[in-house]
Amino acid sequence: MDAAALVTRVDIAGLDDDKRAALLAEQAAAARDRLDPCTGAVAQLVWFDAGDEQGRLLVVLHHLVVDGVTWRILLPDLVTAWAGGDLQPVRTSFRRWAQKLTAAAPGEDALEDWLDIVDGPPQRLASRDLDPRVDIAARARHVTLDLPADDTGPLLTDVPAAWNARANDVLLAGLALAVAQWRRHRPGGGRGTDVLVDLEGHGRDDVVPGADVSRTAGWFTSIHPVRLDAGPADWTRVRAGGPGVATAVKKVKEQLRAVPDALQYGLLRYADPDGEAAAELAEAPSAQIAFNYLGRVAPGGAEDWAIAPEEPPAGEDPRMPMAHALEINAITRDLPDGPVLSATWTWPGELLDGADVRELADAWFTALRGLVACVTAAASGDGAAPVGGFTPSDLLVDLDQSEIDSLQNAWRNQH
After folding, report:
1. N or C terminus: fewer CB in 10 A for the chain?
2. How far apart are CA 378 and CA 382, in angstroms?
3. From CA 314, how far away is CA 139, in angstroms rounded?
4. Are 142 and 289 in contact (CB under 8 A)?
5. Could you give the C-alpha distances from 74 to 6, 10, 399, in angstroms and in order?
6. 13 in the Ramachandran plot: left (φ > 0), alpha (ψ -120 to 50) or beta?
7. pLDDT tens digits, one per residue of 227-245
8. For residue 59, what is the enclosing H or E element?
């Protein structure tokens, strides 16, 4: 396909802010609608020419050829190519990676591990199941909440460091606590403390021998279920940063470490749709919640080639059925006053009430603030008990959590 045919120029010189914004939105939607993977049209670029002022370049790519990591590869390459520089080579193509991945089919042991994770009673968040005829992207509702920098900063640094954890560990520990609390007050929500979550990841894990996809464009995103159980916790103590939040982090961290290779699930579930493994996993209850933490990003500035402030239109086909009752997409933005965790909650508007979703979103932030309070109090030297320490996955010896805690407490008492 001729690359020039993929570029459209639009004159926005002299337009006021409102007219410019309306034209950008109109052209962005038109560029999205021109995508057609059946004919090989997976990219569209629109140059909004502002004359002597700073213009805008819109890059629209079909999800078949791009994921979140791909953008971090393409944007610097675009700048380099514009300046006439040489691009670094792509070591492994997406096609070659996919061939090698599917050739390494997981065995029966892997299936049993995944069945152990998904096995359990159905967990209803709503009064009915998803209906693909009703619960479609066009009827989705959204709410975005921000956690202030004073909370986000320690949440993503001090809290994970206390338990040798990762950002996802503490975010999901807070979510498990919040969902359990939220379900306690809902009809038919049940009294269990576990929750099945579809966890989305970048999918570029080092699982294909010899492959290097660090500069490969493509849709590598993986998604797999994980069962989280933060254990019973008194909500008043969670809010105050009591010991229940520490227990939650330890439990959830270990549950996440016990998950098999994330890409195995997709291979078992979809690579052989007529196989026994696919049939068994398809029969298991599916997760009603999806969670994706996209990491930290720096906002665009006023310089050339910075990320523009305008928000593009939604990229989903409005007729597409929604896969979950609730989807959470979180990202940390490094702003001048500090990092801010921003979470967008998406749900079918005919399935859940917006006030109920907002209640759960607020509960999640409450639990995250409790984690911060737990670590902050321990570090303040005001007499609070020490927190943090190791969990079984940190050690090369076979010790359970109670044995580790006893050893750590004994060591602390000697110092």
Report:
1. C
2. 8
3. 12
4. no
5. 16, 23, 46
6. beta
7. 999 999 899 999 999 888 9
8. strand 56-61
- Interval 365-377: pLDDT, tens: 999 999 999 999 8
The tens digit of pLDDT for each residue in 117-128 reads 998 877 888 989
Residue pLDDT, tens place only, 79-129: 999 999 999 999 999 999 999 988 877 877 889 999 999 988 778 889 899
Residue with tokens 């398809």: 282
Structure tokens at 356: 């109920």
Alpha-carbon distance of 60 to 376, in angstroms, equals 43
Spatial distance between the Cα atoms of 200 and 111, rounded to a whole number of angstroms: 19
| First-to-final CA distance of the chain | 70
**Number of residues assigned to the chain:** 415
For residue 29, give the DSSP letter.
H
Answer for the pair 217, 73: CB distance below 8 angstroms, yes or no: yes
Partnered with residue 144 across adjacent β-strands are 344
Which pLDDT value is given to residue 380? 61
Residue 75 near residue 237 (C-beta atoms within 8 A): no
Eight-class DSSP state of 136: B
- Upper half-sphere CA count for residue 319 (Cβ side, 13 Å): 0
Farthest-apart Cα atoms in the chain, separation:
73
Helices (H), 165-225: 167-184
Backbone angles phi, psi at 106, to 5 degrees: -70, 155
Residue 104 backbone class (left: φ over 0; alpha: ψ -120 to 50; beta: rest):
beta
Cβ partners under 8 Å of residue 111, min gap 6: 268, 277, 280, 281
How far is the C-alpha of 282 from the C-alpha of 111, rounded, in Å? Answer: 12
Q: Determine contact, residues 73/89, Cβ cutoff 8 Å.
A: no
Residues of the chain with pLDDT below 70 are 1, 187-191, 379-386, 409-415
Of 360, 26, 336, residue with least CA distance to 180: 360
pTM flag (> 0.85): yes
DSSP 51: T
One-letter amino acid at 302 equals A
Q: Which residues contact 345 (CB under 8 A, 6 or more apart)?
A: 142, 143, 144, 145, 326, 327, 328, 357, 360, 361
